[in-house]
Amino acid sequence: MLEIRELTRRVGVKDHVKNGASGYHLLNGAKPESHTRGNNLKICTKKRSLKSVVAVAVCLVVTIGFIACKKSVTEVFLDKVILMLVEGETETLVATVLPDNASNRNVVWTSSNPAVATVNNGLVSALTEGATIITVTTQDGNHTASCAVTVAKAIPVISVKLNKTTLTLMDGCKDTLIAIIFPDDASNKNVTWTSSNTNVATVSNGIITALKAGTAKIIVTTRDGNKSDTCALIVSPSAEPEMVLVDGGTFTMGCTSEQGSDCEKIENPAHQVTLSGFKISKYVITRRQWNLVMNNDTSGGNIPVYGISWEQIHFFITRLNNLTGKQYRLPTEAEWEYAARGGNKSKGYKYSGSDNLDAIAWYVDNSGGQIHPVGTKQPNELGIYDMSGNISEWVEDGYGSYSVESQTNPQGTSSSYKVIRNGSYLSVAKTCRVTVRTSMNQSSVTGTGWSGSGFRLVHP
Questions:
Q1: Level-2 CATH architecture, domain 243-459
Q2: pLDDT range class, residue 169, cuts 50, 70, 90
Q3: C-alpha pair distances (Å), 438 with each of 265, 266, 350, 355, 434
Q4: Where do the structural domains in the chain lie, given as residue ranges?
């Protein structure tokens, strides 16, 4: 580009300033009139200030620079060359103009048959059965690209049905409803979901999230024809147990000194165990919790569930995990004893939470021959209830003899005879100690006492 100095010299500014003339300054001796030079540039020879002439010069430089930098469009293409739509549907085509830095990237959209489909800024709207060509044309260079559009006749929705007409969920749980559209080949199978009470439950794409106890109606509505169906939802109180954090640590498992002469042979030898942290349920699982998961029934109250097999417990856990999306499990035998002893807060008691069994347990001397609601005696050092007395408890491990060797996160054996810990409301004091253990076949469900065992859960 020309420098301003050179351009001003050519239009006579230098001489004008040098001479300090007034009136008119003539270019090349010309008369005082307007002159036209190449490219229709009309230069007035009337005296001008340096400021105005420089402004003209700058304008010329910018204009020349713009013309020199202008980028022309070389090509345009569409993201689709064939498009199948149904009457009433829309689809957006995207035009790409090359090069990316083209000066004028504006385009014009047209449809060869607007009765079949229209186009507006790339949005194609299918109107009626037929075919059309959608064309995009660049304003710079008239470059074009096309998409062949076929519009099929719409098949209307006749009805919609849900796979469930009633549903019971626990607070905090989720379930999925499926909407079945008739006919199966309906053109527009889109639906919207609504809940009549979003405080109780919400729904998104058929996935229901229960928020609190109550009732709601889950409604699905088709966009084509506004056909609808309803599921009556009942949200019950949660069956999830209240959990207590047990920090990891190392302890001596088995017959330790505070147990005195009450230890049985299977409680020996005492050995060191190191455990990672975990959460364990504050109370054993109640009948209400069992019934909620297994039968969608809120009856049973806070009495411990018992008289169930290890295998039935695993079925319960599977259902609870499916409902909650969590990973509950039975505690290992080592986890159970560590929690019963009070974890890293242990004070070395013989029973779980005290050396005074009456303060923390229901057993044969004070139960009146009846099982009692959970949490009605004092808790142990961790705030966990009933780990001595009231109900014996299944754990995950298959039975095996202890070893003197130290262990880390032991898992027990795979024996079908599973370990049971704690005593029950029918037990004597000796069998309510934190180290007491026995075993039964994993399918056993009969009787009371040991074979009437319940359980509590662990969560990672």
A1: Alpha-Beta Complex (3.90)
A2: confident
A3: 11, 8, 18, 22, 12
A4: 4-69, 75-152, 159-236, 243-459
Q: What's the Rg (C-alpha) of the chain?
A: 43
Which tens digit of pLDDT belongs to each residue from 290-301? 998 998 777 889
Interatomic CA distance for residues 271 and 84, integer angstroms: 73
Give the distance between the most distant pair of CA atoms in the chain: 134
pTM of the model: 0.60
Q: Which amino acid is at 308?
A: I
pLDDT digits (tens, 9 = 90+) for 112-128: 999 999 999 999 999 99
pLDDT score, position 376: 97
Give the integer Cα–Cα distance in Å for 161 and 222: 10
If we measure between CA atoms, which residue out of 353, 325, 332, 345 comes closest to residue 280?
A: 332
CATH number of the domain at 159-236, please? Answer: 2.60.40.1080
On whether the CB atoms of residues 429 and 357 are closer than 8 A, the answer is: yes
- The whole-angstrom separation of Cα 348 and Cα 459 is 25
> What one-letter code names the amino acid at 161?
K
8 Å CB contact between 187 and 156 = yes
Burial tier of 307 (Cβ tally within 10 Å: 0-12, 13-18, 19+): middle
Give the three-class secondary structure for 139. coil
The pLDDT tens digits of the residues spanning 251-270 come to: 999 999 999 999 999 999 99
- 4-55 tens-digit pLDDT: 344 334 444 344 434 444 433 433 444 444 444 444 434 333 444 555 544 4
Same fold, 75-152 and 159-236: yes
CATH code for the structural domain at 75-152: 2.60.40.1080
Task: Determine the distance from the C-alpha atom of residue 73 to the mean position of all C-alpha atoms in its chain, rounded to a whole number.
Answer: 45
Nearest-CA neighbor of 106 among 81, 66, 141, 134? 141
Q: Which helix (H) or strand (E) holds 214?
A: strand 214-222
Residue type, 187: S
Choose among 173, 384, 377: nearest CA to 281.
Answer: 384
